[in-house]
Protein backbone atom coordinates (compact mmCIF):
# COMPACT_ATOMS: atom_id res chain seq x y z
CA UNK A 1 0.00 0.00 0.00
CA UNK A 2 1.34 3.44 -0.91
CA UNK A 3 -0.21 5.34 1.98
CA UNK A 4 -1.70 8.80 1.72
CA UNK A 5 -0.15 10.54 -1.24
CA UNK A 6 -0.10 14.30 -1.10
CA UNK A 7 1.40 17.00 -3.26
CA UNK A 8 1.50 19.13 -0.12
CA UNK A 9 4.32 17.10 1.35
CA UNK A 10 3.16 13.50 1.69
CA UNK A 11 4.85 10.38 0.42
CA UNK A 12 5.88 9.71 -3.15
CA UNK A 13 3.62 7.44 -5.18
CA UNK A 14 5.29 4.76 -7.29
CA UNK A 15 4.09 3.96 -10.78
CA UNK A 16 5.37 1.40 -13.22
CA UNK A 17 9.09 2.19 -13.74
CA UNK A 18 9.04 5.43 -11.75
CA UNK A 19 7.65 7.60 -8.98
CA UNK A 20 5.37 10.62 -8.65
CA UNK A 21 6.18 13.15 -5.96
CA UNK A 22 5.68 16.81 -5.09
CA UNK A 23 7.51 19.22 -7.39
CA UNK A 24 10.71 20.77 -6.02
CA UNK A 25 12.70 23.81 -7.11
CA UNK A 26 15.44 21.54 -8.46
CA UNK A 27 12.89 20.06 -10.89
CA UNK A 28 12.19 23.36 -12.68
CA UNK A 29 14.90 23.18 -15.38
CA UNK A 30 13.76 19.70 -16.45
CA UNK A 31 10.09 20.70 -16.29
CA UNK A 32 10.87 23.77 -18.41
CA UNK A 33 12.59 21.58 -21.01
CA UNK A 34 9.40 19.50 -21.24
CA UNK A 35 7.32 22.67 -21.68
CA UNK A 36 9.67 23.98 -24.40
CA UNK A 37 9.35 20.63 -26.22
CA UNK A 38 5.54 20.64 -25.89
CA UNK A 39 5.39 24.21 -27.18
CA UNK A 40 7.65 23.36 -30.15
CA UNK A 41 5.25 20.54 -31.03
CA UNK A 42 2.33 22.98 -30.79
CA UNK A 43 4.16 25.47 -33.04
CA UNK A 44 4.38 22.83 -35.78
CA UNK A 45 0.57 22.90 -35.84
CA UNK A 46 0.29 26.65 -35.17
CA UNK A 47 3.38 28.29 -36.73
CA UNK A 48 2.29 31.82 -35.80
CA UNK A 49 2.95 31.12 -32.11
CA UNK A 50 6.06 32.74 -30.72
CA UNK A 51 8.93 30.43 -29.81
CA UNK A 52 9.38 29.57 -26.14
CA UNK A 53 12.90 29.83 -24.75
CA UNK A 54 14.01 27.75 -21.78
CA UNK A 55 14.52 30.74 -19.45
CA UNK A 56 11.02 32.02 -20.15
CA UNK A 57 9.59 28.55 -19.56
CA UNK A 58 11.33 28.38 -16.16
CA UNK A 59 9.92 31.82 -15.29
CA UNK A 60 6.38 30.78 -16.29
CA UNK A 61 6.55 27.63 -14.17
CA UNK A 62 8.03 29.56 -11.23
CA UNK A 63 5.17 32.08 -11.52
CA UNK A 64 2.61 29.27 -11.30
CA UNK A 65 4.31 27.78 -8.25
CA UNK A 66 4.35 31.18 -6.55
CA UNK A 67 0.56 31.46 -6.67
CA UNK A 68 -1.19 31.17 -3.33
CA UNK A 69 -2.12 27.54 -2.71
CA UNK A 70 -0.32 26.20 -5.79
CA UNK A 71 0.33 22.46 -5.78
CA UNK A 72 2.32 20.43 -8.24
CA UNK A 73 3.88 17.07 -8.89
CA UNK A 74 6.50 15.52 -11.11
CA UNK A 75 6.82 12.06 -12.62
CA UNK A 76 10.36 10.72 -12.29
CA UNK A 77 11.81 7.81 -14.22
CA UNK A 78 15.46 6.82 -13.80
CA UNK A 79 16.23 10.13 -12.03
CA UNK A 80 14.74 12.16 -14.91
CA UNK A 81 11.63 14.34 -14.81
CA UNK A 82 9.34 12.93 -17.52
CA UNK A 83 6.20 14.90 -16.67
CA UNK A 84 4.87 17.61 -14.40
CA UNK A 85 1.57 19.22 -13.45
CA UNK A 86 0.93 22.39 -11.39
CA UNK A 87 -2.38 23.98 -10.48
CA UNK A 88 -3.79 26.71 -8.26
CA UNK A 89 -7.19 28.07 -7.34
CA UNK A 90 -8.53 31.33 -8.77
CA UNK A 91 -10.69 33.67 -6.75
CA UNK A 92 -14.13 34.47 -8.05
CA UNK A 93 -17.61 33.18 -7.53
CA UNK A 94 -18.23 32.47 -11.21
CA UNK A 95 -15.91 29.42 -11.25
CA UNK A 96 -16.87 28.03 -7.85
CA UNK A 97 -14.33 26.19 -5.67
CA UNK A 98 -11.81 25.69 -8.45
CA UNK A 99 -8.31 24.72 -9.52
CA UNK A 100 -6.75 25.78 -12.82
CA UNK A 101 -3.81 24.18 -14.58
CA UNK A 102 -2.74 27.06 -16.80
CA UNK A 103 -0.98 26.79 -20.17
CA UNK A 104 2.49 26.36 -18.62
CA UNK A 105 1.10 24.09 -15.90
CA UNK A 106 1.75 20.69 -17.44
CA UNK A 107 3.87 18.85 -19.97
CA UNK A 108 5.35 15.45 -20.60
CA UNK A 109 4.18 11.98 -19.64
CA UNK A 110 1.96 10.51 -16.92
CA UNK A 111 -0.48 13.45 -16.88
CA UNK A 112 -3.46 11.40 -15.57
CA UNK A 113 -1.31 9.97 -12.77
CA UNK A 114 0.01 13.42 -11.92
CA UNK A 115 -3.53 14.78 -11.89
CA UNK A 116 -4.66 12.03 -9.53
CA UNK A 117 -1.75 12.77 -7.19
CA UNK A 118 -2.46 16.49 -6.80
CA UNK A 119 -6.25 16.27 -7.17
CA UNK A 120 -6.47 14.32 -3.91
CA UNK A 121 -5.32 17.46 -2.06
CA UNK A 122 -7.55 19.74 -4.11
CA UNK A 123 -10.68 17.71 -3.45
CA UNK A 124 -9.79 17.34 0.25
CA UNK A 125 -9.61 21.17 0.38
CA UNK A 126 -13.06 21.44 -1.20
CA UNK A 127 -11.74 22.50 -4.62
CA UNK A 128 -13.89 20.28 -6.83
CA UNK A 129 -14.11 22.24 -10.11
CA UNK A 130 -10.93 21.47 -12.08
CA UNK A 131 -9.89 23.21 -15.31
CA UNK A 132 -6.89 22.72 -17.58
CA UNK A 133 -5.62 24.91 -20.43
CA UNK A 134 -3.69 22.82 -22.96
CA UNK A 135 -3.15 22.61 -26.72
CA UNK A 136 -5.40 20.05 -28.46
CA UNK A 137 -2.53 17.57 -28.79
CA UNK A 138 -2.28 17.38 -24.98
CA UNK A 139 -6.04 17.01 -24.37
CA UNK A 140 -6.40 13.19 -24.74
CA UNK A 141 -4.93 12.30 -21.32
CA UNK A 142 -7.37 14.71 -19.69
CA UNK A 143 -10.28 13.36 -21.72
CA UNK A 144 -9.41 9.93 -20.32
CA UNK A 145 -10.08 11.39 -16.85
CA UNK A 146 -13.59 12.42 -17.86
CA UNK A 147 -12.77 16.07 -18.54
CA UNK A 148 -14.74 17.85 -21.22
CA UNK A 149 -13.67 20.36 -23.84
CA UNK A 150 -14.81 23.94 -23.43
CA UNK A 151 -12.95 25.80 -26.19
CA UNK A 152 -10.93 24.79 -29.24
The rounded distance between the terminal residues' Cα atoms is 40 Å
Q: What is the H/E order?
A: EEHHEEEEHEH
Total helix count?
A: 4
Give the C-alpha Rg. 15 Å
Structural class by helix and strand composition? alpha+beta
Low-confidence spans: 1-6
Q: What's the rounded overall pLDDT mean?
A: 87
Summarize the amount of helix as a percent range. 25-40%
The largest pleated sheet is described as: 5 strands, antiparallel
Please give the number of β-strands: 7
Strand content: 15-25%
Global shape: globular
Key terms:
alpha+beta, five-stranded antiparallel sheet, 4 helices
Compose a concise summary of this entry:
With 152 residues, the protein is of the alpha+beta class.
Summarize the structure in words:
32% of the residues lie in helices and 22% in strands. The radius of gyration is 15 Å and the shape is globular. The strands form two sheets. A five-stranded antiparallel beta sheet has the order 1-2-3-4-6, sandwiched between helices. The chain starts with 12 loop residues before the first strand and ends in a 9-residue tail after the last helix. It contains four helices and seven strands; from the N terminus they run ββααββββαβα. With 152 residues, the chain is α+β, with helices and mostly antiparallel strands. A hairpin with a 2-residue loop joins strand 1 (13-15) and strand 2 (18-22).
